[in-house]
């Protein structure tokens, strides 16, 4: 009998029913109370019931994929690499398409920024930045200039010139100045303004001509890694994603954050708007891509698979928003059916991380850049075309 | 420096642990290597099969996943551990001991690498690969002061190893070799541990967030706005995706193809020529898109031009001109803001202006008030008012108009390019003039900018 442990009981007045009973500690709103066993049982039973109701409600609330069950599956397809752009001597970190649907600007770890006509695979311009790890580059809407930056903490604009006597680096214009690395940049609707995202946790809008800071966006709790401008009618917002696992939507005019989403479990590497502008997709180091609806103000779909272990570095939609292309750090590209949530294809074309991926402006192809020093342009052909099916059915 | 790949490492470790489960894991067998028998070995094909079944993936993907586990050093080949390649056949592999996992033993110490190379060198002269010889020499120079220690450790480890059974000796050698293949890869093999420039995590936040009164005021304001925001029912939002994808499907080249052909497939840029930004005869799909949304119409230079014509017939062309001028202001250079604002005022807003726009009195009052201190957003309210006017009134009438119906009827569907009879004769890929060469390529706003690539010499 001596080695038996006895439960030490506290007797007193129960905080709920006030009867004199043996008391147990119960936590309510981080305040410790003492309940008798009967009242404690009631509280835990109520909690279980509420949790159960919440679970059933969540299961009942149709997700995008349930609603899309009645949509026809995409079916068989053939995908081929049509162009391989070789010329970078080091990891390709970023790329952007020109509005002419065939030219591309790409930047790499060794500071080189190259402009290609990817249709002919000719290199048209090349400039070497004074810094390494050029993590961001963008093509101006007019096709007359490019912007790039990285570990130099700046975003510089280079006008593109074909004058053999002119050195491209001579006309370089330093536009943005951050206090940490530049992770992303994008021109707005004109060549005159640039939006940047930086490792210093802020985004900023700049006037290209004067280098003046027009607006800054504070709110991320850690490095901002990506941004995308909204294709909206009023053209006023953009979304950014960062190492604080948050995706934030900003009003360009006021600098205020209008919406924030925090469901990812790790750094958000890439954000891209759905073509309608009512939603955006994000790719993260937690190996998932997610779709966030702006009008419903919540996440509406997750694109993940148990066999996908490495983070998604870059995402983009096809023109209709039906396909989501995502490049991953395990060297693969996964193509997702946005509506049904299923994976349409997995591509093994690269020999190192896929760091950047963009669909061409007219949606005829998509280009991926990788740490294996190459860029590849690919297309897809579905054997049973969706529009044909609709005519028959 | 932070340990690399924490999230994938944890996942990979989970997979590898479940692969070694006695009941559900990969089939283990004893592998005979010359005269020794090594227990707990698995074949490449068994690994692939297990991954295929466990994750319900194709064999190709399973081979890739297995290769990833190998490249990160969680599995090693028993024979020829010079390269970490997964062969989906009878090739024997073993699971790396957790001691050598990246998450356990990181970062790899230079001293340990020196000892490892010294052991290899001592054991048999000339077994070091070229790159290993280089590293050895470099380390010798770098830690020459501690080289005696290195050699002593190497000899001691070799002596201790001799006292083990041959099987254990072989296994430990393989494990160690794999560890160094991962942490010091040979030239030409990408290092799986390489990371991009360091990122600040949430924990080690570089962002200075002073929790001042201002910060909390902002937070409260944000939460208040968030609470007051109207949210649309999920069911409505979800249906919107279906209808959007359904409507745009036939216009998506990657989903439905494009006529006459996809330039990337056929090497023929006819598709781009036919769909150039300014073209006399837009295709049927393009004219259809003008009916999808007002934004779609305005973003297309041809569509916008036709709409301007239509407005002209209704004597409301100044609305679109005003909107365009406002866009120019919003996206223009900062230095031009005062000039542009004044120009817009003179042309569209001043009493008796040549192209006076009809804005409601309240908005006009607010705009005129704001004009005292012009900034690039000062015309936003007026611009939005006119935009909505066009969208709700003129646009629907445009779509119902004979003009639009005529354009739709006239627009043609290109014929599909006949497939080449001789697949070997490749069509020459025409280059196109770079947009940077065009003389008009200066300061154009919105989507009305020039696009090159029309393939016309």
TrEMBL record, chain A:
PROSITE patterns: WD_REPEATS_1, WD_REPEATS_2, WD_REPEATS_REGION. WD repeats lie at residues 85-117, 175-216, 217-260, 261-302, 314-346, 347-377. Pfam families: WD40_Gbeta. Keywords: Repeat, Transducer, WD repeat. GO terms for biological process: signal transduction. The keyword Repeat applies. The keyword Repeat applies. Component of a complex composed of RGS9 (isoform RGS9-1), GNB5 and RGS9BP; within this complex, the presence of GNB5 stabilizes both itself and RGS9 and increases RGS9 GTPase-activating protein (GAP) activity. Interacts with RGS7, forming the RGS7-GNB5 complex; within this complex, the presence of GNB5 increases RGS7 GTPase-activating protein (GAP) activity. Interacts with GPR158; promotes the GTPase activator activity of the RGS7-GNB5 complex in absence of glycine, in contrast GTPase activator activity of the RGS7-GNB5 complex is inhibited in presence of glycine. Interacts with RGS6. Enhances GTPase-activating protein (GAP) activity of regulator of G protein signaling (RGS) proteins, such as RGS7 and RGS9, hence involved in the termination of the signaling initiated by the G protein coupled receptors (GPCRs) by accelerating the GTP hydrolysis on the G-alpha subunits, thereby promoting their inactivation. Increases RGS7 GTPase-activating protein (GAP) activity, thereby regulating mood and cognition. Increases RGS9 GTPase-activating protein (GAP) activity, hence contributes to the deactivation of G protein signaling initiated by D(2) dopamine receptors. Belongs to the WD repeat G protein beta family. This is Guanine nucleotide-binding protein subunit beta-5. It comes from Colobus angolensis palliatus. The lineage of its organism: Eukaryota, Metazoa, Chordata, Craniata, Vertebrata.
From TrEMBL, chain B:
It holds the Pfam family RGS_DHEX. GO terms for molecular function: GTPase activator activity; GTPase activity. SMART domains: DEP, G_gamma, GGL, RGS. GO terms for biological process: G protein-coupled receptor signaling pathway; intracellular signal transduction; negative regulation of signal transduction; regulation of G protein-coupled receptor signaling pathway. Residues 293-408 form the RGS domain. CDD domains: DEP_RGS7-like, GGL, RGS_RGS11. It comes from the Eukaryota. Keywords: Signal transduction inhibitor. One of its GO terms (cellular component) is plasma membrane. Residues 22-97 form the DEP domain. This is Regulator of G protein signaling 11. It comes from Colobus angolensis palliatus (Peters' Angolan colobus).
């Amino acid at each position: 009998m001596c080695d038996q442990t006895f439960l030490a009981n506290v007797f007193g007045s129960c905080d709920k029913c006030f009867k004199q009973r043996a008391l147990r500690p119960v936590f309510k709103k981080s305040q410790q109370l003492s309940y008798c066993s009967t009242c404690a049982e009631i509280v835990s039973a109520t909690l279980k019931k509420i949790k159960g109701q919440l679970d059933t409600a969540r299961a009942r609330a149709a997700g995008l994929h349930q609603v899309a069950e009645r949509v026809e599956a995409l079916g068989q397809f053939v995908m081929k690499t049509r162009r391989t752009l070789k010329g970078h001597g080091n990891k390709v970190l970023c790329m952007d398409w020109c509005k002419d649907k065939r030219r591309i600007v790409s930047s790499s770890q060794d500071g080189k920024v190259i402009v290609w006509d990817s249709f002919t695979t000719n290199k048209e311009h090349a400039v070497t930045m004074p810094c390494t790890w050029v993590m961001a580059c963008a093509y101006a809407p007019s096709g007359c200039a490019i912007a790039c930056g990285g570990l130099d903490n700046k975003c510089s604009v280079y006008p593109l010139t074909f004058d053999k006597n002119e050195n491209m680096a001579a006309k370089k214009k330093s536009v943005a100045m951050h206090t940490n690395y530049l992770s992303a940049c994008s021109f707005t609707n004109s060549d005159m303004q640039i939006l940047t995202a930086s490792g210093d946790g802020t985004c900023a809008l700049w006037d290209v001509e004067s280098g003046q800071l027009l607006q800054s966006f504070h709110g991320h709790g850690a490095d901002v890694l990506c941004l995308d401008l909204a294709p909206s009618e009023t053209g006023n917002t953009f979304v950014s994603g960062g190492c604080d696992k948050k995706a934030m939507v900003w009003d360009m005019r006021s600098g205020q954050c209008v919406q924030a989403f925090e469901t990812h479990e790790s750094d958000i590497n890439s954000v891209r708007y759905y073509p309608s502008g009512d939603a955006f997709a994000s790719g993260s180091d937690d190996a998932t891509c997610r779709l966030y609806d702006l009008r419903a103000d919540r996440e509406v779909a997750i694109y993940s698979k148990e066999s996908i272990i490495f983070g998604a570095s870059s995402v983009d939609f096809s023109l209709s928003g039906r396909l989501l292309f995502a490049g991953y750090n395990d060297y693969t590209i996964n193509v997702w059916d946005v509506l049904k949530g299923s994976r349409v294809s997995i591509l093994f074309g690269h020999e190192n991380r896929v760091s950047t991926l963009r669909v061409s402006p007219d949606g005829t192809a998509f280009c991926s850049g990788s740490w294996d020093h190459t860029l590849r342009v690919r297309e897809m052909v579905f054997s049973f075309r969706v529009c044909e099916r609709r005519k028959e059915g | 420096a932070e340990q690399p790949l924490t999230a994938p490492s944890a996942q990979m470790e989970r997979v590898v642990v479940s692969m070694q489960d006695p009941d559900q894991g990969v089939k283990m067998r004893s592998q005979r290597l010359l005269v020794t028998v090594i227990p707990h070995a698995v074949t490449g094909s068994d690994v692939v099969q297990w991954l295929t079944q466990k994750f319900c993936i194709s064999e190709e993907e399973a081979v890739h996943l297995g290769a990833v586990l190998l490249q990160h050093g969680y599995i090693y080949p028993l024979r020829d551990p010079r390269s970490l390649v997964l062969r989906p056949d009878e090739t024997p592999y073993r699971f790396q001991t957790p001691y050598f996992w990246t998450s356990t033993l990181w970062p790899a110490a230079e001293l340990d690498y020196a000892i490892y190379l010294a052991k290899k060198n001592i054991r048999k002269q000339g077994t070091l690969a070229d790159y290993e010889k280089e590293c050895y020499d470099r380390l010798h120079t770098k830690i020459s002061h501690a080289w005696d220690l290195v050699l002593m450790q190497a000899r001691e480890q070799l002596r201790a190893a001799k006292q083990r059974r041959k099987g254990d000796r072989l296994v430990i050698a393989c494990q160690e070799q794999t560890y160094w293949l991962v942490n010091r890869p040979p030239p030409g093999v990408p290092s799986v541990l390489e990371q991009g420039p360091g990122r600040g995590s949430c924990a080690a936040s570089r962002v200075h967030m002073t929790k001042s009164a201002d910060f909390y005021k902002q937070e409260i304001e944000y939460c208040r706005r968030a609470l007051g925001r109207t949210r649309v029912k999920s069911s409505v939002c979800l249906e919107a995706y279906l209808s959007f994808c359904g409507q745009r499907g036939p216009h998506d080249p990657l989903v439905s193809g494009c006529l006459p052909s996809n330039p990337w497939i056929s090497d023929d840029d006819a598709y781009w020529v036919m769909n150039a930004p300014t073209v006399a005869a837009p295709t049927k799909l393009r004219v259809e898109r003008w009916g999808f949304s007002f934004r779609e119409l305005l973003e297309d230079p041809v569509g916008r031009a036709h709409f301007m014509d239509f407005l002209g017939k209704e004597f409301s062309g100044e609305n679109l001109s005003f909107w365009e001028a406002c866009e120019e202001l919003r996206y223009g250079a900062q230095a031009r803001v005062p000039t542009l604002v004044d120009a817009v005022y003179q042309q569209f807003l001043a009493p008796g202006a040549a192209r006076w726009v009809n804005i409601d009195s309240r908005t006009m009052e607010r705009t005129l008030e704001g004009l005292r201190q012009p900034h690039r957003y000062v015309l936003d309210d007026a611009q939005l008012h006119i935009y909505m006017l066009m969208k709700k009134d003129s646009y629907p009438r445009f779509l119902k108009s004979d003009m639009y119906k005529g354009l739709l009827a006239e627009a043609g569907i290109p014929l599909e390019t006949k497939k080449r009879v001789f697949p070997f004769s490749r069509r020459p890929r025409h280059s196109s003039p770079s947009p940077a060469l065009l003389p008009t390529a200066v300061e154009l706003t919105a989507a009305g900018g020039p696009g090159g690539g029309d393939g016309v010499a």
